[in-house]
Design a protein that fits this description.
Length: 264
């Protein structure tokens, strides 16, 4: 029986999953936005999910993380942005993309830590114009951001780097401890390595299917996204949890637990 993977349907996940779609792969993939992916894992409808990093801390039961694989950034990420109709210091109401979990908490932390702000937040569908019709600013994540990249906005990856000097980890593979054997965890690491080699083809395919600039998509994946989960990313993840706990956005800073990898 194949392991059920809950994957995210954005461009930035493609390097992690493209080689998992082969018929002979030991995984069965389903796709959703990040918030739904986390809910599917919690409900047991998938065995492993590419979940928002904050949902690892919120899970009522312990999860394990696949080592060495993440969706992260070091500085400008491009695809997680706060679009403002006022100066940041004047924000009173902010619309949050209901697809988001990690980025929504990141925004709350950034507004409190950097700007001493605690505005009202409201979750909405990811429609920028409708969001801005009811709020002073709107947090939008993922592929929908690309068409608005010329509009004035705050890049949350850059804001985090300016605050901490660290990478930010948006998501990673996680699940219950018994969900994954060492060989299967290793297969997910190798899938990432293969996917990174295929980024030019991924960018071309995305441009053909969705429109837009292939060169931009390739630059986004190669220069703005990071797919590692090394010491720098783990330091950024721990700082995120520390600040989320400081601001009472999670109940405790979680221990980081990892699946074992197969011996090389």
């Amino acid at each position: 029986m194949k392991v059920r993977l809950g994957a995210v349907s954005f461009l930035n996940t493609r390097p992690l999953i493209i080689s998992l779609q082969r018929e002979d792969a030991p995984f069965a993939l389903s796709y959703a936005v990040p918030s739904v992916c986390a809910a599917e894992l919690r409900a047991g409808r998938v065995d492993l999910g590419l979940i928002p990093s904050i949902e690892y801390a919120r899970s009522p039961e312990p999860y394990c993380i696949v080592p060495g694989v993440s969706l992260a950034c070091q500085g400008e990420v491009l695809s997680v942005r706060l679009f403002c109709q006022k100066e940041v210091g004047q924000l009173r109401r902010v619309a949050l993309d209901q697809s988001s979990r990690a980025s929504a908490v990141l925004l709350r932390v950034l507004l409190r830590e950097k700007y001493q702000l605690d505005p009202e937040f409201v979750e909405t569908a990811p429609d920028l114009e409708l969001m801005l019709a009811q709020a002073d600013a709107a947090l939008l994540i993922g592929d929908p951001v690309f068409r608005f990249r010329q509009r004035q906005s705050l890049d949350l990856g850059l804001e985090w780097q300016e605050l901490t000097g660290l990478p930010f980890v948006f998501a990673f593979w996680a699940g219950r401890p018994e969900a994954l054997t060492a060989p299967l965890a290793t297969a997910l690491v190798r899938a990432k390595e293969e996917g990174l080699r295929r980024i030019p083809a991924i960018a071309r395919d995305h441009a053909r299917q969705q429109g837009g600039d292939c060169t931009f998509y390739q630059r986004y994946l190669e220069q703005h996204m990071r797919f590692e989960l090394g010491e720098a990313e783990l330091a950024g993840l721990r700082e995120y949890y520390r600040l989320a706990h400081r601001h009472c956005l999670i109940e405790a800073v979680p221990e980081l637990r990892f699946y074992e990898l197969a011996a090389q």
